[in-house]
Design a protein that fits this description.
heterodimer; A: Rossmann fold; 5-stranded parallel beta sheet; 10% strand; B: 488 residues; alpha/beta; TIM Barrel; 18 strands
Chain lengths: 216, 488
């Protein structure tokens, strides 16, 4: 199979949400000793970009969006050991520490954002749900993160987002990380009020916001 | 007289109900359910259930759940602040209460949502007190001018001072139950008197899929032991936190609620518990939980029918809307919900006043919804024969000049047979123009002013109020809060 043909198939596998096919094509690329950085950039990335476009256009709904993200992650998981072996560093758009704040066990929104960020080239450390606020900061320090993303679904737990920022200030780390907030009760006003760096309405807008903030 | 039919909505056949329940039992047994509360896990272990302490997962056997169902009361009596008025929660009785725990209020003057303060909460409670078709009050607004640790108890405190109606409430923190119960007991004159005549329902929400958190499980246990009814609020989102099919969501809903019933009965045999919920048809485009979706209401009517089959009182979040303002959508979704909920015979219907996915209360909407609830009540009271014979005697001596308007028959029945709304527009076009072409929200706002002006606050007795303030202040102090907003 020609390289271009393979790339097109990879994109299609992501767009149509066929996980095992996306993985098989990654294995095929490894076997053919292709340049894996090119495989990612010309094969898979155009696929996930198309998924995002279709979602924005309103053709795709959340199930297609999230499936696309998962296919992308699955393909990357096949490629990663080879990239590590060859000591190839993939271009990361930024390092993200993400989780749902303490006292809140809801993680569906957080999972969507986490999945979309990772599918779109961000390096994501997902701490899960009900995460102690100190843990976000510890992990961000440890992994030299660019972003701390705080999710909250409940009006009672969204205060954790504010507390996390206060904690950063106490530790003299405020400004070191871009802090993004999300979840049903959050909005731009809340983000401004507590001194966060941004809020996004949905997972795709979160990807755009992070990309914009990283570029700035 | 021919018996009046109580019109009813049923969406499931008996066979379908039994299949849903069977599958729920199978999941509770095989996959089990997570209960992140040590006391509950101990109760399960004592009852002979297999508990994995590491994962907090309990495998529930059908025989235990059925035993617990047998001891759960099918009818609950709730009493108002005076202890004199009794409300039956069970059978096909319907009671509306304002949708609960909004963090924002729609400010009629600006048309914008904003954070509510103490004055808003007081107005909200006073208004609820004035509305005849809203039988219960709810701690439906969270006052932003008090610190978070006392936010849950503070709204109950205001409700008890300014309204006589029984109250639907709930805890935000495990340690809040005690002082909230103490407030209620102070109104009744002691814990025993409170258990004998409960005036509050405590909402407790499992976290879908198949999980009861520490907070809500503790609330179930504490309420059961205080003799106060708990409302089980399962809330699967189709395709997001439960299966995408309505029937699949019902299976999970029933499983979570059955676990709740079991916790309550193990904590105290015979304790009151309501089979409720707040599920929604998840919007796959926007990722939002629309409460005004027809599928949401179908899930509600479906699990309520199953709750009735299980001989339990029922509850749902209906008669509310996802609109952001008092527009046609607000009326449409609220109207459909109120009517369907009433037809389904759901005992406690929480929703009136609510907008924006259960996050915003509007006083104007509450007044409009009171009228909608009135329509729903009228509908379920059905068509009655009233007279024997119905008509023939009234037509004796009939001439073209016969006047219906002046007939004694008309005077006798017209107020019982028909409603005469205050808010809905029934004016002629010219009269509507002459009155200023006012939109419904404006008519509602004017009506609110009139209601609050003409109805003095239904204040609690002074000595009880002093005691309530003492309990609240002590709890606030214990949480490092020295001052509280002044009450009007």
């Amino acid at each position: 199979m020609k390289k271009e043909e393979l790339y097109a198939k990879m994109a299609t596998a992501i767009i149509e949400g066929r996980k095992s096919e996306a993985e098989d094509l990654a294995r095929e690329a490894i076997k053919a000793k292709l340049d894996l950085t090119e495989v990612i950039e010309k094969g898979y990335v155009p696929g996930i970009q198309k998924v995002g476009e279709l979602w924005e256009k309103g053709d795709y709904f959340l199930p297609e969006l999230i499936t696309g993200g998962e296919c992308m992650k699955a393909a990357m998981a096949v490629l990663q050991p080879e990239l590590d072996k060859a000591k190839i560093k993939t271009k990361s758009k930024g390092k993200v520490v993400i989780g749902t704040v303490e006292g809140d066990i809801h993680d569906i929104g957080k999972n969507l954002v986490s999945s979309m960020l990772s599918a779109n080239g961000f390096d994501v450390v997902d701490l899960g749900a009900d995460v102690k606020l100190e843990k976000f900061i510890e992990k961000a320090e440890e992994t030299k993160a660019d972003f701390i993303c705080l999710s909250a679904l409940l009006t009672t737990t969204m205060l954790g987002q504010k507390k996390a920022i206060e904690l950063l200030k106490q530790k003299n780390l405020y400004g070191k990380y871009k802090v993004l907030v999300g979840g049903a009760p959050a909005n731009q006003k809340w983000s401004d009020e507590i001194g966060a760096d941004g809020y996004a309405e949905n997972a795709m807008l979160a990807v755009k916001l992070a990309a914009r903030l990283k570029g700035a | 007289m021919i018996k009046t039919i109580r019109p009813k909505l049923e969406l499931l056949s008996r066979r379908f109900i039994e299949k849903i329940i069977d599958e729920a039992y199978e999941i509770l047994d095989k996959q089990g359910i997570f209960v992140e509360n040590k006391e509950a896990l101990k109760l399960f272990t004592q009852a002979g259930m297999k508990v994995d302490k590491k994962t907090s997962r309990v495998h529930l056997k059908r025989r235990l759940v059925e035993k617990c169902l047998a001891t759960a009361p099918s009818v609950i009596k709730l009493y108002d602040r005076t202890g004199e008025r009794e409300y039956t929660v069970g059978g096909d009785e319907v009671h509306f209460d304002p949708g609960s725990a909004a963090v924002r209020i729609l400010d009629h003057k600006t048309g914008e949502e904003r954070k509510p303060d103490t004055k808003d909460v007081v107005d909200f409670c006073r208004l609820t007190e004035c509305l005849d078709n809203i039988h219960f009050q709810s701690t439906g607004l969270i006052s932003a001018d008090v610190p978070h640790p006392i936010a849950d108890i503070y709204r109950l405190y205001i409700g008890l001072i300014f309204s006589r109606k029984p109250v639907v409430t709930g805890t935000f923190r495990v340690q809040s139950f005690r002082p909230m119960k103490d407030l209620l007991a102070a109104v009744r004159g002691g814990d025993k008197a409170l258990a004998a005549k409960p005036m509050a329902i405590f909402d407790a929400c499992p976290s879908p899929p198949l999980k009861w958190s520490n907070l809500t499980t503790q609330s179930l246990i504490d309420a059961a032991r205080a003799g106060l009814p708990s409302e089980l609020i399962s809330m699967g989102l189709t395709g997001a936190t439960s299966l995408v099919t309505i029937s699949g969501t019902l299976v999970q809903h029933v499983a979570e609620n059955l676990c709740g019933v079991t916790i309550v009965q193990l904590a105290k045999k015979g304790a009151p518990v309501i089979f409720g919920g707040s599920p929604a048809s998840f919007d796959m485009k926007r990722g939002t939980p629309p409460m005004g979706a027809i599928e949401t209401m179908m899930i509600d009517a479906g699990y309520a029918q199953i709750g009735k089959y299980l001989n339990l009182p029922t509850h749902a979040y209906m008669a509310l809307s996802d609109a952001k303002t008092n527009d046609a959508q607000a009326g449409m979704e609220t109207g459909v919900g109120a009517v369907l909920g009433a037809l389904a015979g759901i005992n406690v219907i929480s929703g009136p006043g609510m907008l924006d996915f259960e996050s915003c209360q509007s006083l104007e909407k509450l007044v409009i919804d009171d009228e909608i609830c009135g329509m729903a009540y009228r509908l379920i009271s059905g068509i009655a024969q009233r007279d024997e014979p119905i008509a023939t005697d009234k037509f004796e001596g009939y001439t073209p000049e016969t006047q219906f308007l002046s007939m004694p028959h008309t005077k006798k029945w017209y107020r019982m047979e028909h409603l005469y709304p205050v808010i809905a527009d029934r004016d002629t076009y010219d009269a509507w123009v002459a009155l200023g072409k006012k939109p419904i929200a404006q008519r509602a706002a004017e009506h609110i002013e009139k209601l609050l002006r003409s109805n003095p606050p239904a204040l609690i007795e002074k000595d009880v109020r002093t005691e309530l303030t003492r309990i609240l202040t002590a709890y606030a102090k214990a949480n490092g809060i020295e001052s509280l907003p002044a009450l009007p």
